[in-house]
Amino acid sequence: MSAPGVGFEYPAQEVSWQKRDVLLFANSIGCKADELHFLYELHPNFAVFPTYPLILPFKLADQEVTDFYARSKATPIPGVPQFDYSRVVDGQRKLTVLKPLPTTSAGRTFELRNKVVGVYDKGKPGTVVETEQSIVDKDTGEVYSKTVSSNFFVGQGNWGGPKGPSTVSYPPPEGKSPDAIHVVQSNLETAHLYRLNGDYNPLHATPEPGAKMGFGGIIIHGLFSWNSAAQGILRELGGSDPNNLREFQARFASPVKPGDKLITEIWRTGNFHNDLEEIRFVTKNGNGKVVLSNGRSIGQTPRQRLSCRRLPAATSTKANSSLPARPSREDPFVARSALQPFVDFETNKYNNRYTALKRTPEGHEGLYGNFWLRENCQCSKCIHPDTRQRIVDTFSIPSDAKIERIEYTADGAEVLWLDGHQSFYPFTWLRLHANGKKIPLDPNMMAIRFFKHQPPSDPFPPAVSYSSVMEDDRALWRWVEAIVIYGYCFVQGVPVDPESTKSLLERIAFIRHTHYGSGFWDFTSDLTFKDTAYTSEGLGAHTDNTYFTDPARLQLFHLLSHTDGDGGTSLLVDGFQAAKTLFAQNRNHFHTLAEIPQPFHASGNEDTCIQPAAQVPVFNIHPQHQRLFQIRWNNYDRAAKTDWTMEEQMKWYDAARAFNEIIHRPEMQLWTQLEPGTALIFDNWRMMHGRTEFTGKRRMCGGYINNDDFMSKYRLLEFGRQKVLDNLGNNASLSYNPNYRY
């Protein structure tokens, strides 16, 4: 050996992974819902994120937690000191992807082959151990990836070893602004999630090791920062295509604390070789301190993009017809599901009817139509300050509305129109309303919206107390939030009388009137209304109001009494969870129930024959967000459909039968015996309900609440009135957008 430890080969070790490991890794490094091919195992293009090989030397073939320290020092390197692995941090990683990994190793044998490249004594600061790790198919000898890794053993130097060569530096281009910026906000649990991939170093889980090493407590894995930067670069410049990342490296410059923001600035160099471009990047924390340096990536990127010119940086400018700059990915108001990553506005579509305005104090710009801007002026002459309704006569504005002058303040843009009208547009408003080119949404890649599913086996269903809800708006917020998240909630301690139950419902909104009466029901099984619900018969899982154009969103039941009999156990089934199961089981069935509409009706009473304005499918897909948001499933109220082909009939019945089988599975069903004093409220657009047959006399009360009234209450409690007003008209698929909650 030419130097201590160099050339030493560790014994080959088997590595293996399952699809769930691949999904966990993609989730833990920040892959987004519109990168479904990394997050959904039944996606037609399901793939391993290309940097996953880096986790395999930690995970090996284990599916259980391992002892990081014991495993790390199991095989000492000959000729060098035995280092303390309780004081080791990542130094640098360089990954070369030679071949994509399969989504599971099942049926094949893969090995980790690991050899020492160098052991370098850096004096008092510590020692660097550099290794080359290859993931190899044992049977064929094919090499899938190679990783050159350096680990830094803190304070373990001065043992007389070689200092090692200087490393090659890859600084960002001088004098050039980043071509893209990717932002990741970590939280206190980031490291705890990432470590489940197999990197169980206690340094990232408990504060004691970090305190001993001078970090002051827990730090996030360096490889989390490294992998999240790779995810950002592939997303921003590679279209999230795993084949577009071939090589990736970065040096770990400083530790990242839980809660730090990671900002990756990305530069295209224009240096191509075999259609692969060299990318440089730097990752900093929110205070501007570099955490990843020497960042370099090799991959496939677009050869050309339209160049975009910024408006002058001066505080005052004439209306300008130049093209706007691409929105920075640092700006959280640019929603990927609504806009392309870099919005290129074609020159031939830009004229003096459009204007580029700064939408942030930092100078990020957006494109706005002149007439649209004038019509949506936010001044009190155009928008009523109390009602927030438009009071300007839209069609009294000249169709060729022209801007005379634009001036910027610390808070927004002041616009003087040629007709003398003055407008002020706050930056917060401009950020939320910039125009962009929409991405066509592929129904075959549809993401189904799910909040938290409450397993029927969970012994602690969501519940609140009547007194707290009636007395405290914070408790009211927790109640409506539980309904949104879980789809249902119990209310305990309700006085056993209809008046108190009615007051409880009215804490959310007014009660909906229907053909069943004045809105609030108080009934027994006497068939006063000709509906199966007014009998003592058992009812299968269903949603109510399928026959209304706008079904009620919420439904509440409160059992006031049950005498001289038993039975009547209530059933809940999470329709979204059932739809998700169907989607995974047979995507064609899911789309059939989302595409073929059905007729519904309510015709039990002589003076009633209600039908929706149009036939509707079982699964209602949001037209902008392409996500499931409503289920209509009621076999009792479905009428005989005639306007379909024989092929459509067979497809629909096959799909409906499959869905019906799913909702009858025991693991899908939550059974509960209602009791006087405990009310049950649920989301009728999501949860199906039913009951068993009963004997005796039951008295039940309750009512419906409309969707719009419920969501108004929820949004105001969750976000506050100002944020709701700021986002009027904003349809971006972002978690902080009140309009994305429906």
Automatic annotation (TrEMBL):
Ordered alphabetically, the record's keywords are: Carnitine biosynthesis, Dioxygenase, Iron, Metal-binding, Oxidoreductase
Q: What GO molecular function annotations does the UniProt record carry, in alphabetical order?
A: (3S)-3-hydroxyacyl-CoA dehydrogenase (NAD+) activity; 17-beta-hydroxysteroid dehydrogenase (NAD+) activity; enoyl-CoA hydratase activity; iron ion binding; trimethyllysine dioxygenase activity
Look at the named UniProt entry and state the broad enzyme category this protein falls under: oxidoreductase
Q: Which residues form the Peroxisomal multifunctional enzyme type 2-like N-terminal domain?
A: 17-155
* E.C. number: 1.14.11.8
> Per its Swiss-Prot or TrEMBL entry, what cofactor is needed?
L-ascorbate; Fe(2+)
Q: Where is the composition biased (Polar residues)?
A: 314-323
Domain named TauD/TfdA-like: which ranges?
A: 461-704
Q: Where is this region: Disordered?
A: 310-329
Output the GO biological process annotations, alphabetical, semicolon-separated.
Answer: carnitine biosynthetic process; fatty acid beta-oxidation
The Gene Ontology CC terms held by the record are: peroxisome
What catalytic activity is recorded? Answer: N(6),N(6),N(6)-trimethyl-L-lysine + 2-oxoglutarate + O2 = (3S)-3-hydroxy-N(6),N(6),N(6)-trimethyl-L-lysine + succinate + CO2
What protein family does this chain belong to? Answer: Belongs to the gamma-BBH/TMLD family.
According to UniProt, the name of this protein is Trimethyllysine dioxygenase
Please report the organism this UniProt entry assigns to the protein: Aspergillus steynii IBT 23096
Instruction: Tell me the organism's taxonomic lineage.
Output: Eukaryota, Fungi, Dikarya, Ascomycota, Pezizomycotina
